[in-house]
Amino acid sequence: MNELQLLALLPFIVLATASIVVILLIAFRQSHTVIQVVGFLMMCMVVFATWYVKDTLPQAIPPLFVVDGQGALFTGMIIFSVLAIGLFSYIYFEDREENPKEYYILLFLGTLGAAILTISQHFISLFIGLELLSVSLYALIAYLRNRNNAVEAGMKYLVLAALTSAFLLFGMALIYMETGNMEFAVIAKKITTTSPTLFIMGLGIMLVAIGFKLALVPFHLWAADVYQGAPSPVTAFIGTVSKIGVFAVLLRFAQTIQLQHYPLAISIFSAIAIASMITGNVLALRQQKLKRLLAYSSIAHFGYLLVAFMPGNSAGTEAAIFYLLAYSITLLSAFGVIILLSTGQGDAEDLSLYQGLIWKRPVVATVLSVALFSLAGIPLTAGFLAKFFVLAAGVQQHMWLPLIVLVVTSVIGLYYYLRIISTMFAAPLPTLASPKTLHPFFYISTYAALIIMTGLLTWLGVFPGIILQGIKTFLLLH
Known about the structure:
- The protein has 478 residues and is mostly helical.
- The protein has a domain at 259-478.
- The protein contains 20 helices and two strands.
- A hairpin with a 3-residue loop joins strand 1 (59-61) and strand 2 (65-67).
- Helix 5 packs parallel to helix 11, helix 6 (123-141) runs antiparallel to helix 11 and helix 14 packs antiparallel against helix 16 (362-376).
- It is globular and about 70 Å long.
- The two termini are 20 Å apart.
């Protein structure tokens, strides 16, 4: 490994170091506040390192990694999400029964696993990143072990994730049997000269694991229970960081092997996208728990994302990255509100708790309203333009059936998003959650983060040009 290759790995080295630093802080019995502040600064260092090395990209680090502009984009989204989740975690765990210190070790290890996925170009690095992410999530989901639904959610995720890992390995084995190699680029060359029967079978079996991680139909049955049972910051981590990492490696693999040239594979992805869009929106209609509603909503949104994924062209890639960015900011805003309203006795997930919120907590209610408008795809929010770019990418490839389903199910989704907003404008109930008593710095920081993310959602919905140009510039570093 030469100097430039080592420099390209600097953000990931800093990210790995963050977990070690937290372990040392725990060993020296540092407080939750110190660990939180140091962890936040470490994530800022990762952002700085990513920006510092961008002029050296792309750098191939054979055979496992390729650090390029696309990987840097996804890594940046992951770190942005973890910065927000780390901030929200302080106010969430400060009045909980569990010691929150070890939580940050698991959080940073899971982040490292997701970041490894963004630069993987080999089945070995893919599996290492995915397992590092999954093992961290097993403990994170069940972290509040005195709560029955948390332990149940952790066990359910553990059993299903272990099962899907077996599918992933079996699919890799079939592709290796067909091509004799596990590097994405070599696999792409081999399947152009051989009959890809085993390759298609292997890809289909691997899709079970990928579909599970992205909560796509029919691999979605865990999503609602895990979203509800996990601590709210962990649920936000699953909905953003985990899925960004998995989608990043799926996109890189599809680009390398030119997946759009295999009609059977595209038909399978199209069926999964259509089923996810329909199932996610229909199941969300009658939900009275906000976290479960967001779980089913995420199933639908990643069905929308597959519509941008399938064309395999530059427009589809740009649309997918913009969609992931908009969705991540939106979901973090929504979970930030849930965390602010939660108490030591439980998370603020019942819709009845939000009745009259606009009259009691106008800033929080405004943040949640903008986030819901964005999820619904209402104009002047990032969610609207994200769906528009997905539609444009699909129209270029004449993918009419998924596009029709996307439009129809988006209309269905309006009902349950607007139902929450109407609840917040109803007459207030006296049982509305009272504000947390927090250290002023973290209280103000959390509000500032929510206001900034709300401003970003509006800005991206009106002036997306700068972000789109930045996405195009980084994608050229390939």
